[in-house]
Amino acid sequence: MATGNTSERERWQRLELVERLVAQSKLAQALTLAQELRRNALQHPDFLGQLAWLFSSLRDYQSAQDLYLAAIAVAPQEAGLRYNLATVLRVNGDLEAAERELDKAITLDPDDADAWLLRSGLREQTTQSNHVAGLQRQLAQPGRSVASRVKLRYALAKELEDIGRYEASFSSLKQGADLFRGQIQYDVQRDLDALAAIRQTFAAEFFRANGAAGHETSEPIFIVGLPRAGSTLLERILGCSAEVQLVGELNNFAHCLQEQMGRQFPGWQPTSLLDRVRKSGELEWAPLGERYLLSTRPYTGGKRCFVDKMPLNFLYIGMIRRALPDARIIHIRREEMDHCHAMYKHLFNHAYPFSYQLDELARYFLGYRQLMQHWHEQLPGVIHEVQYEALVTRPEATARSLYDFCGLAWEPHCLEFHAANQQPSGTGSASQVRRPLNDSAIGRWRHYATQLAPLSKWLQSASRIPQHPAGPGRPDQNL
């Protein structure tokens, strides 16, 4: 803690309190206290930088940007502050300013692999303007940590792909993915067993039973699927409606589910993940739905609807339907090879551990496909399907159907979402959604047809599960 007079010590103590409140998900209290601190902030780079980080955690990205700028004014040589500012500028949509800050951060600290990785994704690199040589020099340096080499490998793969050097790109990508996979403990079969348990638990008998009614609210719109399918694009299109608030990817439903199980079954000790899945079928649904809605405050409540685009909520569709029967559920899907390749080449760090080896990726993808088909069979007409390729090639018809399903008045400017929607975006597609709609990502996997041949074989050799046709769902009020 900083030394000085009592007033300074109190402000540092209050800063620590805000951090604790954020960790405890007491967001309204944390935001109120953070705003008070901002009005009387210490002009100290560490204080300003930490307060900026907390505002970013609270999704007040403009305040975070302003505080990082204030911190840099005090300590312009702090590379970490410039990197953090760049992350917020990217969320706020100022990609050119973000790149300038990353250029400065890398000049100050050339070994910052995070900065190299973030910069590589801000724009499409060109043969005239790229960082390939610099990335290769960084990778040639001895003594690099595994984590650093992984990030540099992914950055180099991305830039090489941009300039059309596909064989070298895949080589760098595979090296990075193999390095990362070697550092994590993961068993894809455990996930597949859980997917099977979900299908068994939330089957016809569960949905036929006349369980207690859930929490009645039409606020939530869930976008589900697997990452890199186009969920951020869907979110931005919906966010052009004055009735819709965007809140990004929330872990709230899964967290509230665990809390509800703890309250409802005190002392119960599951012996496995499968036990936990099966026990979840016995929950009281209205309290779960109400707890989820309350947990989204203070980000929500100011508009008629909000979009929760956590992809992995596809696991909980049956529970969402019971807990929040009036919520809209949208499934975004993509051509399978493009989708799997897009996941494989993205560094998720602490999420989606199945995505770093092609065989594990194929196995999980098939399990996901099977579970989605199960939800369609058990909840006919409830889930609105959107095909990414249709969205980018027939945008108006696809977007109109989407708006109809959500009960929203049509907004023609939603097709110009990159200009019309200025809400923050902090996902892996934050840079892409600042650009006009285009079909450049369709068929991109074919540049790597030889390298991805095993993936294609695995997907094609599996027993085919029929895809539910894209189009509007029709919620069945009897379910």
In brief:
The chain is mainly α and 479 residues long. Helices cover 55% and strands 5% of the residues.
List the helices and strands and how they pair.
Elements: H1 6-23, H2 27-39, H3 45-57, H4 61-74, H5 79-92, H6 95-108, H7 113-120, H8 132-140, H9 146-162, H10 166-181, H11 188-201, H12 204-208, E1 220-224, H13 231-238, E2 244-246, H14 252-264, H15 273-280, H16 285-295, E3 305-308, H17 317-323, E4 328-333, H18 336-344, H19 358-378, E5 383-387, H20 388-393, H21 395-405, H22 417-420, H23 453-461
Parallel strand pairs: 1-3, 1-4, 2-3, 4-5
Helix pairs in contact: 1-2, 1-3, 3-4, 4-5, 5-6, 6-7, 7-9, 8-9, 9-10, 11-15, 11-19, 14-16, 16-17, 19-23
Characterization of this structure:
The chain is mainly alpha-helical and 479 residues long. Helix content is 55%, strand content 5%. It has 23 helices and 5 strands. Strands 2-3-1-4-5 form a 5-stranded parallel beta sheet. α1 packs antiparallel against α2 (27-39) and α11 (188-201) packs parallel to α19 (358-378). The chain is globular.
Extended strand count: 5
- Report the C-alpha radius of gyration, rounded: 23 Å
Q: What is the helical fraction, as a range of percent?
A: 40-55%
End-to-end Cα distance, whole Å, is 56 Å
Features:
single chain; 479 residues; mainly alpha; five-stranded parallel β-sheet; 5 strands; globular; disordered C terminus
